[in-house]
TrEMBL record:
This is Response regulator. It holds the Pfam family Response_reg. The keyword Transcription regulation applies. It comes from the Bacteria. Residues 148-213 form the HTH luxR-type domain. CDD domains: LuxR_C_like, REC_NarL-like.
Length: 221
């Protein structure tokens, strides 16, 4: 059972998400929060698998709450998905760097929301595939000069190659086609790279790809 916490200051938004999620046999909405402080308290009390987190909330915004969740070692298993009104909300970039596992626009199709919740718990985020490459392009445009690449020495040549392809927004299936391997093999290489680099999820692996210099701005074409 996937345990989900909803954090949004709009009651109707929470009610809509709850109705959809609770109707699934494998998903249970364990709590709701109307502000960032309440969200943080409930995450610590309930330890959900995933949090659907709005950015603009009173008392503490979703970005600050996300950072506190992802920085807490005791909450390492909690995945945060940012909810945004627009496809590229000005705060989404900062949320990914703060440790969010991905993002969804609030008017996403119900089937995509359900797929996203299941995917993020499985470690397969970034989310909202239609705008993933735009988000990565924004990250590339803002990224600082890469740090020393010694961290990449932990990876095999194949793992570096796969990490670079993930860094430009390719899914496991697209990586598999590019390298002429099975999707399971591609996923295995991605997972091994995440473990070796201590990345929480695929989103953080993308951040590391840019910050290490493995992927550079302009590679998206």
């Amino acid at each position: 059972m996937i345990r989900v916490l909803l954090a949004d200051d709009q009651l109707l938004v929470r009610a809509g998400f709850r109705a959809l999620l609770d109707a699934q046999r494998d998903i249970d909405v364990v709590g709701e929060a109307a502000d960032g402080e309440q969200a943080l308290r409930q995450v610590r009390e309930l330890a959900p698998d995933a949090v659907l987190m709005d950015i603009r909330m009173p008392l503490m915004d979703g970005l600050a709450a996300t950072r506190l969740i992802t920085e807490d070692p005791e909450l390492a298993g909690v995945k945060v998905v940012i909810l945004t009104t627009f496809e590229l909300d000005e705060y989404v970039f900062d949320a990914i760097r703060a440790g969010a596992s991905g993002f969804l626009v609030k008017d996403t199709e119900p089937a995509e929301l359900l797929r996203a919740v299941r995917a993020v718990v499985a470690g397969d985020a970034l989310l909202s595939p239609g705008v993933t490459r735009r988000l990565i392009a924004e990250f590339a445009a803002r990224s600082k000069e890469p740090a020393a690449v010694a961290v990449l020495d932990r990876l095999t040549d194949r793992e570096r190659e796969v990490m670079a392809l993930a860094g430009i927004g390719l899914s496991n299936e697209e990586i598999a086609r590019r390298l002429v391997v099975s999707p399971l093999t591609a996923k295995t290489h991605v997972s091994r790279a995440m473990v070796k680099l201590g990345a929480r999820d695929r989103a953080q692996l993308v951040v590391l790809a840019y910050e290490s210099g493995l992927v550079r701005p302009g590679w998206l074409g």
